[in-house]
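fyi for ur records
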Amino acid sequence: MKAFFVLLVVFAIAFVASAENEESSEFIHEIEKRQIIKPITITAKPPFTPCVFYECIARCRQRGYRNGGYCTINGCQCLR
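which gave:
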């Protein structure tokens, strides 16, 4: 009978401790959610012309360069 009473008290203490822990963690979680700052995305147009490889090849072939072209940091370069 004493063992049952001791076991019951241990389970009651464990239950109360876990309940208090969950309540405090939810409160902290709410504070953290309020403090989240969304990053600001800044987009800027690059100083050079963007190059897409298949558009570069097609553009060069339309201009008469049968070997097409390739992309560089400065834009499209056609091959002779």
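The chain has a mean pLDDT of 77. thats all i got for now
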